[in-house]
Amino acid sequence: MNFENILTEVTKIAKTSGSLIRERFYSKENFVFEEKGINDYVTEIDKLSEKIIVEGLLAVFPEAGFIAEENTKSTRSEIYNWIVDPLDGTTNFMHGIFPVAVSIALMKKDEIILGVVYEVGLDECFAAIKGKGAFLNGKRIHVSESDSLKKSLVATGFPFRNFSMLEPYLKILGELTGETRGIRRLGSAATDLAYVACGRFEAFYEYDLKPWDVAAGTLIISEAGGKNTDFSGGNNFIFGEQIISSNNKIHNLLVEIVKKHLK
After folding, report:
1. Record: fold of 149-261
2. From residue 118, how far is each of 75, 145, 170 by CA, in Å?
3. Hey, what CATH topology would domain 3-140 get?
4. What residues contact 126, with CB distance under 8 A and at least 6 apart?
5. pLDDT one-digit tens code per residue, 43-58
6. Maximal CA-CA distance, the chain
7. Distance from C-alpha of 37 to C-alpha of 244, rounded to nearest angstrom
């Protein structure tokens, strides 16, 4: 199977979907949205974007199943499955701010083997195939070389629907605020991960994330030389709803800080 050709087609699909998002972002038209849960929204654009992506991926690789946020198609395959977030950063989109992103990953059994994150606002397409390196708009990228928290910029996401770990999470935030160059909260986990991969951030951490938030970005990070774990330092970061991603050089320091507060 030629994954390079598949990646080319997936990139086109992500950009086509991104064009729709960009057009509606800048239009003056109102759009319909609904609340899936506390502070958890879906717009008509999320659904239209996912429809475009699913139809495109079915044409590229009809044997693969789907794990998609808006459940346009949810039939899973035994071997290959697409993991799709059609619009990561829906709340940003609703308020007219970037970043917003399209995230598409291909999983073979339990392993992510291909990933694309297209950030709509800056027209940046991050992509990777397992074992082939990571790229931004066709140019090779690598994680940051910083080996010190004091020289690191760290991204996170604040709890917005699951507040069960809010108190210890704020303690982690407080410690890292004092130990790093700063903390950023962009509102799009897929973009945060892509920015770790290209060295803009040294690390990212968050809980209550879903597979479609992280699947593509984590592969891009690992192919750029970085590392991904769950909060305990283990490998359950795709489906485990918690993640620490970094340039690898400060990873153990972050895991220790997180573990200290989340006993």
Report:
1. D-Maltodextrin-Binding Protein; domain 2 (3.40.190)
2. 24, 24, 30
3. Fructose-1,6-Bisphosphatase; Chain A, domain 1 (3.30.540)
4. 115, 116, 117, 118, 119, 134, 135, 136, 141, 194, 197, 198, 217, 220
5. 788 889 999 999 999 9
6. 50
7. 25
